[in-house]
């Protein structure tokens, strides 16, 4: 069998041996169907003042399916970036929200000021739900490796493990902080964790937290993230160029594990041009002199997200807390992301938001009416969880989840 293996540098120097079978030790490991997630489009924009009339930016993708996407904002223009999950308050709308349907990605600003945002949207459909096509640059030299059973003549980006014309997801920094004391300080006393990433704005990162019940979830920047056993929470997260900031509204401190995966905008890095490397610059950039990792379609010094599985699950209309268990059996907590229909339907009835999704209907004299939709994982399963607080039980809502699992080990 013809294959390609490109090992990553080992901490402390050298490279992992070519006979190592841990795919997390490779930037490219094409022995099996280790598809590298390829970016379709990206952007960084200012969403205009939405204080009197909410302002929405619309990005057309036309993929025909709900893609892997992520949007981020610096909502208060203070250098604190957060992933945009949708969280609605009892009397207030969120600062910013995002959602995608089969055609578009939307970012909406409710703030009474201009807001900086950034987004990425990826090709990641392996089930031929959609049929995206790329136009290969004529006369260019391409480095591409087709998936098993696919042909290198295909123009469908999802038919490739790697394609040098497409900018793949590059992990600039990954790390963990185990047994971390998360301070119950609300918005005034965040728990700070130095992430040690050599990054600049816009800051793009996925921050995962393993609650004391042993279940891990992605932290959002708004609303409330509860533990799967619904005894701990709520937790939100922001990130700067130096620190992860975790805000806990839990009744007391708690011990949790935290993992982060930072990608996006790296600071120019002199180590990029040291040998040995394999790099494929984007059009217009010089492989010999370029130092910004985001200007490479592929760079062997950086780990990538390796696709494993995606699907959807329609719970239909339910009126009580419900958990669906889906086995992945990887033996570790993988990188994952979930999306759920936006039942507030602010943008339109067919948009899906990144989980955790929070809908508050509680206020003084009208307590415990909130509904939360979220996705959790452990070393064996993925869990699609809908949590109705006590007084919200009986409220009819429809839920459909999309979920995506990657082979990358979070180390939790």
What does this structure look like?
By secondary structure, the protein is mainly β. The protein has strands at residues 5-7, 26-29, 38-47, 55-60, 68-74, 82-83, 87-88, 96-100, 104-109, 115-123, 144-146, 160-163, 171-182, 191-194, 199-210, 216-218, 235-239, 243-248, 254-266, 279-281, 296-299, 307-318, 322-327, 334-341, 352-354, 357-359, 371-377, 381-388, 397-409. Strands 7, 13, 15, 16, 19, 23, 26, 27 and 28 form a nine-stranded mixed sheet that branches. A four-stranded antiparallel sheet has the order 3-10-5-6, with no helix packed on it. Strands 22-29-24-25 form a four-stranded antiparallel sheet, with no helix packed on it.
User: How much strand content do the residues show?
Assistant: 35-45%
- Which structural category do the helix and sheet elements fall into? mainly beta
State the helicity in percent bands.
Answer: under 10%
Distance between the termini: 34 Å
Helix count, DSSP H or I runs of 4 or more residues: 0
Looking at this protein, list some descriptive labels.
0% helix; four-stranded antiparallel beta sheet; 412 residues; 29 strands; single chain; mainly beta; 44% strand; nine-stranded mixed beta sheet; globular
Please summarize what this structure is.
This protein is 0% helix and 44% strand. It contains no helices and 29 strands.
